[in-house]
Amino acid sequence: MRNASKLVLIAIVGGLSLSPAFAQNAPATSTPMAKARSPQSIECSKQADAKGLHGTARKKFRKACMKGGGGMGKPDVD
To answer: What is the mean pLDDT of the segment spanning 5-30?
Structure first.
């Protein structure tokens, strides 16, 4: 019984020590390029920043702003 428990312990420790060898990391060169943002999108983001909007409120504001043409009038969204 004592030898069997040693073998189990060796198998567990051996398996844990080999797991980092099989871990796959994405190469740094495979990062996708970010899309260029339109001037309208940038303006809407600036307006949202000025209002201090975050999360869902920011998302709703930016959606309404993009439909409204960006700087063509500031949509009043909560």
So the answer is: 69
